[in-house]
Amino acid sequence: MVQQTKTPVALGETRWQALLWPLLVIAVGAVSIFVSGVVGALVIIIGYIWLVTRSLPVALAIYVVFSPFPFGLMLHHHHIDVSDLMALMMAVRLVVTSIREGSESLWQRFMGSPFWRPMTLLLVLSILSLATALSHSTTAIKILEYIEFFVVIVAVARQADLREEAWKPVIAGLFAIASALALMGFYQFLFAVGPASTVVDHFHVRGAAVFGQPNAFGGFEAMVFPFVVALLAYGPDWSRRWWGWVATVLTALAVIESYSRGAWVASVAAVFFMGVVAWVARGRTMINRNFVVPAVVIPILAFVVIDLLGKVHVAPHFAHLAVGQHPHVKPHSPVKPPPHSHVKRPPHALPRYLRSKTTGKIAVSTVTSILHPKSNFDMRQRLKIYKEAYLALRHHPILGVGLGGFHRYSMLHPQPGLKSTPTAQNLYLEWGADLGVLGLVASIWIEWSWVKSAVGALTSKVRKLTPFEFAMGLGAFGAIVSFIVHDWVDFLIDHGVIVPFLLALAVVWVLAENRRSRRAP
């Protein structure tokens, strides 16, 4: 006889009449924040406290929307994002609910995931790293960030238990903000609104939206893309409407316009392994046009569109470049485009550091930079960063330099020719440098746990998943693959960027929990 264990339910119902006023207060605060940051943030917080008491799923959706934006308050020289305060309020709601109801212990509610062992190791190492941290304040802030990301947000999203009504506002918020940021990035790319260090095709710049860094923007959109594709291909009827196609097109464009090679490879890997898992779970009939069109055809068309637009100059007046591209042009001054759009800028007009120091030629090809890394500025910098992280790990093998301390280490012990870098541009090297050898072990262990739990839940024969459960599970698996692959050449654990991945972990947690409960004797 199968024992049915009690599963968590979404806290608070989505009754929109009762949510109208708190949502209106939050909207007023969002508008006011452009006039007065402090007043706007306080109004948002008041409305959000009200909202959390009414509906946790909608509160999570608002967190998803606000997380990419750096709105916040200054507290003792430290900037606190509004999204951080939102996470704190949701955590308080979960704690109070656990104490009142007594249905689950606090440990089970916050740390009962199938990957709790490596997660616990990571958090313990982070706390112990305070003993050797180069900056105790930086490490303490990073520990709080990790608790917010991997403990609080994952636990809050898990409460919805894959009920469609509870997840609808979260999905709507995620797709809406991803689409809006995609349009913003497209505008930046098309009209060359950005720094000269991100120039592509001579007339444009890489899209970055509000993230300030194209790789982060591309990584965010590359983790949203699997969810969009999975819901459009295999989800229920309500998720396969026109807005799903719009979100697919915009997220695909966003990944391409970011010109993030890590995001490109991560998206390809996510789509490929999603197809493999769908085939293994339900047969090769799953690889049909419903999957191929949004997952393969639309990204290819998006690549063609961006490539063609990259060959023409469409900015009406000038390119807003933060760094002058000519010795006689001062920084932060507008650079006028060439008189004819088909005339490319000469090599000497490009920033000097984009040219090879050995040949004087432009080295922008990703393929040739791998074969000849010394002729490519980005590749040279990346190799220096990796060497710096290795040296930090070798010199501090026990507890590292403290969580988030690699940046300070690179400033104290810089490699010749290395520009300042906030991260090690690699998840394994970052955690190894920050937390020592065990941090490196934790990174491999936790990634294996993520993939194993997701694949096991999707291919389980205990119970056939509903269309929504399968689509969300497959999208979560794709987001996890995208995160892991991109983090080979980057580090995406940051505000806003990591949100789609956290939702993916919550989905995998629920699927694994349901699988265990139905196997129990």
Keywords summarizing the entry:
WaaL-like; 521 residues; membrane; 61% helix; two-stranded antiparallel sheet; Polymerase; 2% strand; O-antigen_ligase-rel_domated; mainly alpha; disordered N terminus; transmembrane helix
Structural features, described:
- The protein is mainly alpha-helical.
- Among the domains are: about 1-110, no CATH class; about 175-310, no CATH class.
- About 60% of the residues lie in helices and about 0% in strands.
- The chain contains 19 helices and four strands.
- It has helices at about 15-30, 35-55, 55-65, 80-100, 105-110, 115-130, 135-160, 165-190, 215-235, 240-255, 260-280, 290-310, 365-370, 375-395, 405-410, 425-435, 435-460, 465-485, 500-520, and strands at about 70-75, 80, 200, 205.
- A two-stranded antiparallel ribbon has the order 1-2. A two-stranded antiparallel sheet has the order 3-4.
- Strand 3 and strand 4 form a beta hairpin.
- Helix 17 packs antiparallel against helix 18 (about 465-485).
- The radius of gyration is 23 Å and the shape is globular.
- Mean pLDDT is about 85; it is low at about 1-10 and about 315-370.
